[in-house]
Amino acid sequence: MIEITSLATSEAEAFQTGSEIAPYLARAARRAPRAIEILNTDGAAALHAWSLDQARAAAGLETIDEVMTALRQAKLANHIAVAALDLAQRAALIEITGHLTEFADVAVESALQAALKARGLSGDGIFLIALGKMGAFELNYSSDIDMAAFYDPDVFDGGKLAASEAASRVVRDAMKILQENTGDGYVFRTDLRLRPDPSSTPLAVSTQMASIYYESVGQNWERMVWIKARICAGDRGAAEKFLEVLEPFVWRRHMDYWAIADVQAIKRMINAKAGSSDMDDAAADLKLGPGGIREVEFFVQTQQIIMGGRNDALRSRKTLNGLHALVALGAVDGQVGTDLEQAYIQLRGVEHRIQMLEDEQTHSLPQDEATRLKVARLCGVDDLKAFDKGIAETRRVVSQHYRDLFAEEERKAEWAAKGNLVFTGVDDDPGTVETLASLGFSEPSRVISAIGNWHRGKTPATRTERGRGLLTALLPDLLNAMSRTGEPDMAFNRFSRFFEGLRSGVQTLSMLLAETTLLEDLVTTLAIAPRLSDTLARRPGLLEALISQAGQEYPPALSRDADFETQMDEVRQWQNERAFLIGHRLLHSRLPAPQAALAWSDLADACISLMADAAAIETARKYGPQPGHWVVGALGKLGGKELTAGSDLDLIIVYEPSEDGAENAPFWFAKFAQRLITALSAETAEGRLYEVDMRLRPSGRAGPVAVSVSAFDRYQHDEAWTWELMALTRLRIVAGEVALGEQVLEIARHAIVNRPDEAACRFDILDMRQRLWRERPPRGDWDIKLADGGLVDLEFILQQEMLLSGNEASVIPTVRDAIDRLAETGALSEEDAGTLTSAFQFMQCLQQIQRLAVGAELTAENFSRGLKRRLAMATSCENFSQLESRYVAVTKAVSSIRCKKIGPLATES
Predict the structure, then answer these.
(1) Which residue spans of the chain are classified as CATH 1.20.120.330?
(2) pLDDT for res 547
């Protein structure tokens, strides 16, 4: 370990030697000859006392400019006195830091009084609280000073201004007196950002507002800050009263598990760096780096905050006094206490000498060896290698003891990234910025700011202490999971939207903390699937479905006594949960695309059946008994059991009136159909189920929403266009009376068999495909449905062959069954059937995941890297480039069959 020795036998000689090494000390001597004279004649202690007298007297000067000049001259005298004592080793560390802090107190008091005097205000009710090193009498040689300014609104009189405005102006003036850099330099750099919520509060905060803030959303890191709090300027009575109010916030007799876990998590996040290379860094940061001063301070503070509520002896502002109390209590081993005390004294001593070089607020040893040798020489060491080795040994001792603190919890919370993750305080921690950048975040400061706001309770999920503690414990795993997606910025943005939408965070955060796979799944989902991300943001409660999946497979039994709207919401709640689970399983390769299509379709079938029954009951309640039977038929993707996320439903409703209800049936079943469409598509508080498309009913938009079976029969045989007969090939009955359903299917089969002659049929189909290509061209390279050789082409091929093949293959809703039957009848060659089967499987996989993840986004440029990987994996491709090549080949093969079977997409013209 490094040992600091005296530079000379006398204080004046030590300072002279130091000024020959350190440029700042030499400049101070030239600018303050009176101070050097006092040092030479009366000694450093007398010079320190003189500097305090000069600073006190400054408050009585006439003008602000005079006050500023006097304080700056007094500051130089104090710096000379302290440097002389330190370099001569005539005072212990606690005295050195005490002298620096004592001067800061006097200077702040004089600046405040001068500012009040200049505005003609009394100082009653306004005060400044010293925090951090200043509060603990532990200022370093070139320290800035952390304070918070408050005023008691019942006491402070702002004169012509409101108390808040007047107090803030006074504080602003006082800070200017202290920190403005004039020809005489500055007194102290000041920092008021440790006040409550500094981004949205004035410089001076009312004591009432501050009390409410700390009671409601005060964080554990703020409690640690307030361990060191003390009055440094202003109305002492008002300040003591305020500190008494805050005492229960700082010192809690009973800390629950989550508060302790939060402190432990803060400790882990302060510095998780490890490794011999860090310890051997000759240009180490002695304050924030591993094995540095901050670790000694935190070693003490974490235990003070946990045990100090029950033991007054631990409530010391000073680090070393707190360490001694922990040893006396038996909480810290005596040798550990001795090691840390020696290391703290040595590191603080070297820190002072770093700052003596140029009066800069830096804690890092110089990278340049010549400059670093100056620091060594100020410590009384001429051998740079020995100096570097001693520093490294000291830091290793600190690091080992620091890492042993909460060692068991540390093992439970190991995480992959090595680096800082600090979201406490007000400044962006440089190590955290570096760590976030290494994790792939492009704007670390934005991430730090957002998480800081969460910690301040600016979102419902963290308005309780337990919520904030859970967030702190979760953050390392959360950020690493975001990094692993390859899209950390996108994952963070979408997690933010999800997280800020939570009404209460404790349950969700507890789940994520307990279920690491759930956290990974959530982050991946948010990163690569905007559609699911939006769903979760609107309904974060769906996340619970991933934990409690049992019992959710089956449709709910609707409350028969409930009104129609309540029944609609019951089905929506169930459908939301089921749809989310299907999408999540599909996205994470736990459900193959064909099975997902069946799952989406079965879900829609169940919702249609439930809502149709409810609509029938409601219609009967309002318009009398049901006059006959009804069925709901599915066409398109639902008919073929090929739904994707977000698919609409192509439906027809057919009824058969009873003998005594023929007159009332058209009206009754029209009302029934309207209620069913409303039940499926209307937006309620629980969202909507599906978009419903009734345009494939007889006569399309011009026809009734429900058609009688006789009218259905007549229309399909006498009036249906070829494209309507093509649609009928995918008809499937999903709800209603079984016998009527069979009758409707038989009508469809008969109508298809008795289609127009083959030449007219082929002409119509080619004309339709060419018109569709002109009027609805593909919207991008990845429009899998409308592309040349896409799913529409595949369906046209099958539907044409089904129309032309007769009764053996007339109504076969599913694509795979249709291909198999057409191959059996010889309508498709074995080669074409194989090509279409593999093409359908390939394109279905792509479309299922594409629709789930990004909906209608049809250009690959906007696919995330994670989505590209997922698409490639779903189609057994090694990468997205290989997938693109295969996509081109597959669509080309389907296009070739379409050209052969139907014709080209464009005419010669």
Answers:
(1) 253-414, 758-901
(2) 60
HEC secondary structure over 354-382:
HHHHHCCCCCECCCCHHHHHHHHHHCCCC
What DSSP string runs through 852-866? HHHTT---GGGS-HH
Query: Average pLDDT for residues 245-263, to the nearest whole number?
Result: 71
Check if the beta carbon of residue 674 is closer than 8 Å to that of residue 846.
no
The encoded tokens of residue 75 equal: 């500051």
CATH number for domain 564-753, candidates 3.30.360.10, 3.30.460.10, 3.90.550.10, 3.30.365.10: 3.30.460.10
Q: List, in sequence order, every residue forming a beta bridge with 633; answer none if it has no partner.
A: 652, 733
Task: Summarize the confidence of residues 373-392 as an average pLDDT.
Answer: 95
pLDDT the model gives residue 277 = 44
Residue type, 815: V
User: What would the two tokens of residue 81 be?
Assistant: 């006195």
- Amino acid identity at 777: P
Q: Where in the chain is the domain with CATH 3.30.460.10?
A: 122-250, 564-753
Indicate the residue type of 842: F
Q: What is the pLDDT of residue 151?
A: 97
How far apart CA 625 and CA 634 sit, in angstroms, is 26
In a 10 Å sphere around its CB, with 0-12 CB exposed, 13-18 middle and 19+ buried, how is residue 723 labelled? middle
CA distance 835 to 705: 39
- For residue 126, the tally of other CB atoms under 10 A from its CB is 30
Residue 56 tokens, joined:
């006190």
For 516, phi and psi rounded to 5 degrees?
A: -65, -35
Average pLDDT, the chain: 89
The Cα–Cα gap between 281 and 388 comes to 9
Beta strand 692-693 with 649-657 is parallel
Distance of CA 599 to the CA centre of its chain: 31
In the chain, what are the helix, strand and coil shares in percent, each to the nearest 5? 65, 5, 30
**CA angle at 522 for the pair 521 and 528, rounded to the nearest 5°:** 85
- Reported as type and span, the H/E element at residue 145 is strand 145-151
The one-character DSSP state at 701 is G
Rounded Cα gap, residues 95 and 297, in angstroms: 18
What average pLDDT does the segment 377-392 reach?
95
Which string of DSSP letters, residue by residue, matches 684-701?
Answer: BTTB-S--EE-TTSTTGG
Determine whether domain 122-250 maps to CATH 3.50.7.10.
no
Class of CATH domain 253-414: mainly alpha
**Beta strands 126-130; 145-151: pairing state:** antiparallel
Q: What are phi and psi of 23, to 5 degrees?
A: -60, -40
> Could you please report the per-residue DSSP string of 194-238?
TSSSTTTS-SEEEHHHHHHHHHHH--HHHHHHHTT-EEEEE-HHH
| Residue 182, φ and ψ in degrees, nearest 5 | -105, -170
Fold for domain 416-528?
A: Four Helix Bundle (Hemerythrin (Met), subunit A) (1.20.120)
CA dist 446 and 430 (Å) reads 13
Overall CATH class of domain 758-901: mainly alpha
DSSP code string of 531-572: HHHHHHHH-GGGGGGGT--TT-SSPP---TTS-HHHHHHHHH
Question: In the prediction, which pLDDT does 65 show?
Answer: 96
Tokens in use for 352?
A: 């002072």
- Which pLDDT belongs to residue 110? 98
Question: Which runs of E-coded beta strand occur in 557-663?
Answer: 628-635, 649-657
With the CA atoms of 309, 314, 320 and 324 taken in that order, what torsion angle do they form, in degrees rounded to the nearest 10?
A: -140
> Quick one: which of 102, 96, 95, 91 has its CA closest to 52?
102
